[in-house]
Amino acid sequence: MTKALTIVIPVYNEQDNLVRVHKELQTYINVAKVPTQVLFVNDGSKDKSQQMIEEICASFSNFNYIFFDKNYGLSAALKAGFDHVQTTLTGYIDADLQTDPKEFDLLLEYIDANDLVTGVRAARKDSIVKNTSSKIANGIRRAFTNDGMDDTGCPLKIIKTDYAKRIPMFKGLHRFLPAMILLQNGKVKQVPVSHFERIAGTANFGVWNRLLGPLMDCFAYLWMKKKYINYTVAKKG
Predict the structure, then answer these.
(1) Cβ-proximal residues to 159 (8 Å cutoff; 6+ apart), any chain
(2) Degrees (nearest 5) of the Cα angle 13, 38, 101?
(3) pLDDT tens, 156-211?
(4) Global confidence as pTM
(5) Is residue 213 within 8 Å of 176, Cβ to Cβ?
(6) Which of 14, 67, 138, 188 can pair with 42 through a Cys bridge, CB separation 3.0 to 4.6 Å?
(7) Is the dihedral of CA 117, 121, 126, 131 positive or negative?
(8) Full pLDDT tens readout for the chain, 237 residues
(9) Which CATH number, 3.20.20.240, 3.30.300.30, 3.60.20.10, 3.90.550.10, labels domain 5-125+151-202?
């Protein structure tokens, strides 16, 4: 099967970012190493995001969208995106563009030998509170999952689509993508990527989301790991 990439972009009230998102993603698509398209997943935005998304998708055939009837959260948006991707590779980037779409090409260099390649944000441009809470949350998660990942919250990832589609749905999913690939006996790798300040819009995660929420999710992950079913088909007739 020919290698191709669909970049899933969750959107929640990002009207101030979408013009730049379209410009940056179209620029990347024009030079990408593999054929690339974009799938917006509008997580029930209440601003003008959907109108802008529809205008973009009507004018550019390599942009498509899903629109939720209400806000379900980042994990649901990602899972819906994964479920609807039809290319061999699935990418993920946030609509705030604090990571650079052109660096998907850095991740692509390692995807043949791995099943998920994730960025690690170098020299993060976030507040001290956000950086500190993220480091603590990553440490807690790493202790529970043994996934070896330093920055699972980095919104720049590529996953082989057949692995992405097998990831079970649960709230907090976005923090455990490498661990969920490891549950499938897949291989994961992290690669340093650039990080930038948020230019527009408002972050949707606070201290609760980055600390207490992830701690609770870790116990859910341990339960899932114990119950997870893995099998390999040896032969079909």
Answers:
(1) 82, 89, 90, 91, 92, 115, 116, 177, 181
(2) 85
(3) 999 999 999 998 877 777 788 998 899 899 999 999 999 877 666 565 555 555 55
(4) 0.84
(5) no
(6) 67
(7) positive
(8) 689 999 999 999 999 999 999 999 999 999 999 999 999 999 999 999 999 999 999 999 999 999 999 999 999 999 999 999 999 999 999 999 999 999 999 999 999 999 999 999 876 655 565 655 566 666 666 666 677 777 777 899 999 999 999 988 777 777 889 988 998 999 999 999 998 776 665 655 555 555 566 667 777 777 777 777 777 788 888
(9) 3.90.550.10
Q: CB of 10 within 8 A of CB of 94?
A: yes
Residue 89, token pair as written in the block: 């590779």
CA 87 remoteness from chain centre: 16
Q: What is the sign, positive or negative, of the torsion defined by CA atoms of 23, 25, 31, 37?
A: negative
Segment 224-233 long-range contacts (CB within 8 Å, at least 24 positions apart): 224/168, 224/170, 224/183, 225/183, 228/168, 228/183, 230/183, 230/184, 230/185
Domain ranges of the chain: 5-125+151-202
- DSSP type of residue 33: S
Which is nearest to 158 in space by CA: 199, 221, 115? 115
